[in-house]
Automatic annotation (TrEMBL), chains A, B:
<keyword id="KW-0804">Transcription</keyword>
<feature type="domain" description="NAC">
    <location>
        <begin position="4"/>
        <end position="168"/>
    </location>
</feature>
<keyword id="KW-0539">Nucleus</keyword>
<feature type="compositionally biased region" description="Low complexity">
    <location>
        <begin position="205"/>
        <end position="219"/>
    </location>
</feature>
<dbReference type="Pfam" id="PF02365">
    <property type="entry name" value="NAM"/>
</dbReference>
<protein>
    <submittedName>
        <fullName>NAC domain-containing protein 90-like</fullName>
    </submittedName>
</protein>
<keyword id="KW-0805">Transcription regulation</keyword>
<dbReference type="InterPro" id="IPR003441">
    <property type="entry name" value="NAC-dom"/>
</dbReference>
<keyword id="KW-0238">DNA-binding</keyword>
<feature type="region of interest" description="Disordered">
    <location>
        <begin position="185"/>
        <end position="220"/>
    </location>
</feature>
<dbReference type="InterPro" id="IPR036093">
    <property type="entry name" value="NAC_dom_sf"/>
</dbReference>
């Protein structure tokens, strides 16, 4: 794993996050291996834009999402509410928490989503930085004679959460993503009008000609030519 | 790469697919390494549901998408149209082709999307099997005196395409995916009604209680208890 083949990266399912990573962290297992991928960090002390550089060493190149184990805060251990505020802003929950299921349809955790706001509540300004917080649920066997045989009680583990940080993008499909710098450049060039994509597949269609036009260093036909002008589509039988 | 850490998998960007994989394939480079990830296959001779088991050996475990290099068909080499029909059905294009851009905003390829229909055209029945076909565009320098200095002409490479096969799912975010078997089971249990997800994060919310109820082997409280009944949410300060 020192040198991954091109295109291989950490792209876990929620089940892998909870059943492998969070489970082993909660039980103190495989710590060195785990923390090369997901380090332990007080993420609620750190502005989200400073988190990517603190990601695990095997994920340092990732541009799309970053994972951390967040230890339970002291004030929470003492029975208080966890703090998710820092100098520049705060995390605020969105929607309701939801279950996470294993592939054999057992409940293995709970997921809560948050958005980062810049400023002070309740007047903060919403940003594109988002967070999914996962807590593990483990089943604990009870007295088999109490309500029936083989009954288990779900237990919510709170010592560590596993958090996924990401920047919400316009593209709904991760597969089509382009690096964030390119998207940012495009947005500024187009004056924030990103509504021009057609149904063909999102980002890469001819209506994005403004992108190439803004790329002043390159010197080729793409700057001024649209997709339709390059080829006579009627003659291209694969289309 | 013999033993990838949990959660690491082939999850390439379109730029990696074209600029690394397709480029090397077209130029006959790194063939052994390439084909362990993306093999060469006449995919238009094979029903899509038979393709996953033919994926590259490093991707054999993948459940979400499968990649192949498709060589140009003989009839296309002779100037005809490529055939995308087989005994049980056919691939049909959707939308318009679109450009694919590199991270420095240069056009590197063209992408075309298709859907598999079961039956004979034009009366086939649409399936959930989809395909993205990528062709590389390479810039060839022209006579520098013709229209200006350092001018390049885009050239569409046709000897191989790179195809991504996948099954369209209801979940718009790949991150939230569950294994296909679980989704299929859920769909059949719920009678195809998948409109009940709330805004919290898709698949894992309490409205999916029907899933656990259908899981007859497990014997715990999840079968009959909703998320709200397990805990008093008001007391859970992390919510």
């Amino acid at each position: 794993m020192e040198e991954s083949p091109t295109g291989f990266r950490f792209y876990p399912t929620e089940e892998e996050l909870i059943s492998f990573y969070l489970h082993n962290q909660l039980h103190g297992l495989k710590q060195a291996k785990l923390h090369r991928v997901i380090p332990v960090l007080d993420i609620f002390d750190t502005e989200p834009w400073n988190l990517p550089q603190l990601a695990g060493e095997l994920c340092r190149e990732d541009r799309e999402q970053w994972f951390f184990f967040a230890p339970m805060q002291e004030r929470e251990e003492r029975g208080g509410r966890p703090s998710r505020s820092m100098a520049t802003g705060y995390w605020k929950g969105t929607g309701s928490p939801g279950y996470v299921y294993s592939s054999d349809n057992k409940v293995i955790g709970v997921k809560k989503s948050m958005v980062f706001y810049v400023g002070k509540p309740p007047a903060g300004r919403k940003t594109q930085w988002k967070l999914n917080e996962y807590r593990a649920i483990e089943l604990w066997p009870t007295n088999p004679n109490s309500t029936g045989s083989n009954v288990s009680i779900p237990k919510l583990r709170r010592e560590f959460t596993l958090c996924r940080i990401y920047v919400a993008s316009e593209s709904s499909r991760a597969f089509d993503r382009r690096p964030m710098e390119a998207v940012a450049r495009e947005t500024s060039i187009k004056g924030g009008d990103a509504s021009a994509s057609s149904g063909s597949g999102g980002r890469g269609d001819a209506s994005s000609a403004g992108v190439a036009a803004g790329n002043a260093e390159s010197s080729n036909h793409w700057e001024t030519t649209s997709l339709d002008e390059i080829w006579d589509w009627e003659q291209l039988d694969w289309l």
